[in-house]
Amino acid sequence: MLFSNIIYNSIIRKLIFFLYKRKFKLLPIEYVNESYEYFRNLHCETIKYCLVSKYWKQLVSKHLTNVLDFKNGSVLLSFIGEDKWKLIKEHSSLFFYDSIQSYNEDEGYRLKFRYRKMLINSYGDSFESFLNSSQKFQRAVYFNIILKIDMLTNQTKSKPLVPKKVKRLVVSGFDTSNEDQKNKALEIINSIQPNQLFLFFTNEYNQHFIPSLDLSKYFLIPSLKKFNTNMNYLEPIHLLSLDNRTTKLKTLHLRMKFNEMIKLLNGQQEYANSFTYPDHIQHDWSLMIKKLIENNTIINLILNSFSNNYPSNDEPLSPLDQDFKTSYLTEGFKSLFSNPKCTIKTLQLVSINFIDQLFLDGLALNTSISTLIIFNDIDYISIINHILPKNKTIRNLIFVDVKNDKFFIFLQILNNIINNNNNNNNNSNTLELYSISFGVESGIDENTLEKVINEIKLCQYPIKEWNIYINKNIPNPQILLENNTIINLKHHLK
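RESULT FIELD:
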């Protein structure tokens, strides 16, 4: 009996982790707001586990409590409460406050339940209270701070009176021409030590071309795990400040002028004005790649071309550009991806059009990436044909905002790979994918959906799970095929 309980505990632990931690991370950012809809059917599955026995219910409760965090807290909200049938008790849960004041007013209730973690949101005017407060908060208290740049830089204090844990800091309204503003902002941000930092420009600045803002000093913030900005682009030299001995950076968004770098390195000097040190681009690129190869903290890498025509994507390479030598950049990516110590787990290809044989070879040799996310304009045909038969590590393939016709092209390519392997009796090239997710630009209509399902049934693809985003909710959103493949039909985020 004891041995079987150990097995049950292990099974439930892995199931709950997969459903509420792993799957949540696999959601493309476009679908995060649909997270409750995404997990609704899984809630029913979780409840069914509880009905097996009292012991199973205890296991589900225990492991749900363990996976609960700020990311999935809203998804698991229906499981939280003090009623006896609730799976996560209040004292083991999270709590969100709109301000320091509401946190203080809730003292009695807070002390009663002693929440595992608490998040206080601080907006605009309350930022001064955040800086000037001498109150010492519990170790379980974290802050989200959202404010405009002038509220940040108009403060008389440059750091909090008492250190506080800041989960996320969002600052809008940056003016790249104001050096004093940038320096003051950096000083305060560095003293706040946020885990996540987002810098945004207002519409006033979005209307005009903004030269690259030197972001190198932000990478020196030792607490930083995630950093992004909506308008600015990185230059290779900015990453050279990254200190791999102290950094905690988990997510790196490489929004760069990849196309213009390629053109400049191919002798097109008219693109020199796009970079701070155009004569050093190749040297800085090599040093940046070396820095990334030596890093062991980054697990999420996003590649995205930046365009002066923001918010549109970088202009596609013209036919003339196809003759340009792309290896100036892709040799570096091959070295990064094929490095046996590579730590990248999730790779997002958002808007890049320089994929060549070196880039593909690097991905084919990679042994760390388990989730590959491909956005609409990426050369996915080359990626699938070249990488999937060789790479055994990629388990989850996600397509975001693709066109309807690409879905069927993808299925045909997948079918060709499987048939070629079967005809050649080549077991070493069998597909190792666990899940494939498709988010079509405007969702899939009923007629197309029927064709897709029939195609998947007919070909018996060796895929455990398909996630397909459609135009509306349907009564039976899950289909189980004879080969135990599951098709999940999810409402498309418009």
